[in-house]
Write a structure and sequence with these properties.
Elements (H helix, E strand, L loop, with lengths): L1 H4 L23 H7 L15 H14 L9 E5 L13 E3 H6 L3 E2 L12 E5 L8 E4 L1 H6 L6 H14 L18 H13 L13 H13 L10 H9 L14
Antiparallel strand pairs: 1-3, 1-5, 2-4, 4-5
Length: 251
Amino acid sequence: MTIVERGYARRDQLGSGWAGAMGHTQFMPSTYVAHAVDFDGDGKRDVWKSEADALASAANYLARSGYVKGQPWGLEVRLPDTFDYSLADGNERRMETWMAAGLTPIIGGPFETAGAEFAELWVPAGHEGPKYLLFKNFNVFKTYNRADSYAFAVGLSGDAILGKTGPLTPWPTHLMPLTVSELRDMQQALNDRGFDAGVVDGIAGRRTKLALAAFQKTQGQIADGYPTKQMLIMLQASAVGTAEGELARPT
């Protein structure tokens, strides 16, 4: 109603998806009112038909959400063979800490962070896949959509526009990902064994990954928290109460 009352658009122009998101860049109505701009100068903030307005509005939204121009969203890194994956826990640490832990840019040379002092280590596909240091701009992307996969896709797309390639580390396609039902089974099994995976919802969130990493550690595995069918089989074969007892390996 505010959009129509203020004359930003007619009611018949307010096309949207089922959830209410509108235009090329899928603004919610409240986001449109707060952040849409008239970039092409025609007197309208038209995110439906004007690509210029839509893209400029998205840029305005990101800028107001804290995007730091010139700083990377993330950098792919190489880890030492003996790296402790428990440091991939969702917490930011100073760049000096990561360098002291042996992290180096996968492309070689020094880290180029344009002044970014803190980063979080993200291992989206386990120890066999790409590893990234994530900076503030990655979380700014997530104000648009909270999914890590969404922010990752936005970051990679932006890099591609700049002529960069990535990730350079191959994705481990030989590892079988879990279905939603299997993820629920994994979460329930983790909870049953004293590893707090939280709500059994079939979503491999950070709490689930931390719980899985804790289980992997008890089994002498690399504790990267990556949920695969191999890990589910190992988990279901382990004894209930693994977290409280001694190292319990499947027989």
